[in-house]
UniProtKB/TrEMBL annotation:
PANTHER family: FERRIC ENTEROBACTIN TRANSPORT SYSTEM PERMEASE PROTEIN, MOLYBDATE IMPORT SYSTEM PERMEASE PROTEIN MOLB
Keywords associated with the record: Cell membrane, Membrane, Transmembrane, Transmembrane helix, Transport
Membrane topology term: Multi-pass membrane protein
Gene Ontology molecular function, alphabetical: transmembrane transporter activity
One term under GO cellular component: plasma membrane
Phylogenetic classification of the source organism: Archaea, Methanobacteriati, Methanobacteriota, Methanomada group, Methanobacteria
Keyword Hydrolase set for record: no
Descriptive protein name: Putative ABC transporter permease protein
GO biological process: siderophore-iron import into cell
Record-stated family: Belongs to the binding-protein-dependent transport system permease family. FecCD subfamily.
Transmembrane segments annotated in the record for this chain: 12-33, 68-89, 109-134, 146-171, 183-216, 242-269, 281-299, 306-329
InterPro entries linked: ABC_BtuC-like, ABC_transptr_permease_BtuC
């Protein structure tokens, strides 16, 4: 298979794979639904003459559709953020939570559960503290005269550890019979409580974040060459890097606020996408978006279908992600050399 044919096959795969998993996901659940019923139900708003069961309509549109869309959105946001971070930091071990956004959002959610317990409060607190954690990381890195990429990364490690300690403090003082189990379950990651309202609340941050990253993916190729080369081509590396970090933060905070902490997606999906389409960010970012959405939706289907009790997706992404990462590590990465 020549290079051009391989590229065409890869593009077709990345377009149709999410569509196939999207449709198949409606068939998975405690209440069995046939493919014909799913198709008729999905088309019923366009073709009112189609006869559909009210029960199936409720299951498809109010229960399964929001969850499926949520899985696609969360997977896409984490994967494309991880790909962007790996590119601008030129490090294959970087993921979407590099600058402390996940632990910051986790603390916000834990605080929201402790103070209120209402889903909307938990989601808002998680999103806000995700933004606060990255803002703190960036401001701390800029406070040092020799501030650079390394200082930014180290600041992210420190802020992440700080918010992790605050999460532990919240868990320590939480009611062990009421609040603590809810906090622990949220931190393990789940899409079980996804609703249309939650998706609408993150719609604007997700759209803004995606526009930023997709619009700047050409600039990421220049940043990968080094700051001096980028400046010689008329690019302001610090400004572009800040915009990319802002876009990644919006996406990751929005994703974590509705799903909890889901690891490994932002680490392994960019590597898998790089093996399919190569290191060029013009194709790598859209490929990561597609593959990340498909992968997390597949994981979520497994979590609710393997056993009677739903498995938190954070557990499954780690169990499945570690062997995949080790396999990718064994193959090596000539493109990073």
């Amino acid at each position: 298979m020549d290079k051009e044919t391989k590229e065409i096959v890869s593009i077709i795969l990345l377009i149709f794979f999410p569509v196939i998993i999207f449709f198949a996901s409606f068939l998975i659940g405690r209440y069995p639904i046939s493919p014909i019923d799913v198709l008729n139900t999905l088309l019923s708003p366009i073709f009112p003459q189609l006869e559909v069961s009210p029960t199936i309509t409720t299951i498809v549109f109010e229960i399964r559709l929001p969850r499926i869309i949520g899985a696609l959105v969360v997977g896409a946001c984490l994967a494309i953020s991880g790909a962007a971070f790996q590119s601008i930091f030129k490090n294959p071990l970087v993921s979407s939570d590099l600058l402390g956004v996940s632990n910051g959002a986790g603390f916000g959610a834990a605080l929201g559960i402790l103070l209120s317990g209402a889903n909307i409060i938990t989601q808002i607190f998680a999103f806000i503290f995700g933004l606060i954690s990255v803002s703190a990381t960036y401001l701390i890195s800029k406070s040092y005269k020799a501030g650079g990429i390394l200082v930014l990364v180290l600041s992210g490690v420190a802020i992440s550890a700080f918010f992790n300690a605050l999460i532990s403090a919240i868990k320590f003082i939480a009611d062990p019979d009421d609040k603590l189990p809810e906090i622990v379950y949220w931190l393990m990651g789940s899409l079980a409580s996804i609703t249309v309202d939650k998706l609408l609340m993150i719609a604007i941050p997700v759209i803004i974040g995606l526009i930023i990253l997709l619009a700047l993916r050409w600039h990421m190729n220049l940043l990968a060459m080094g700051d001096e080369e980028a400046q010689s081509l008329g690019l302001n590396p610090s400004r572009v890097r800040l915009l990319i970090i802002a876009g990644c933060t919006l996406l990751t905070s929005a994703a974590v606020s509705i799903s909890g902490i889901v690891g490994w997606i932002g680490l392994i999906i960019p590597h898998m996408s790089r093996m399919i389409v190569g290191p060029d960010n013009r194709t790598l970012l859209p490929a990561s978006l597609s593959l990340g959405a498909s992968f997390l939706l597949l994981i979520d289907n497994i979590s609710r279908a393997v056993i009677a009790i739903e498995i938190p997706i954070g557990i499954l992404t780690a169990i499945i992600g570690v062997p995949i990462f080790l396999y990718l590590l064994k193959r090596g990465y000539s493109e990073w050399s």
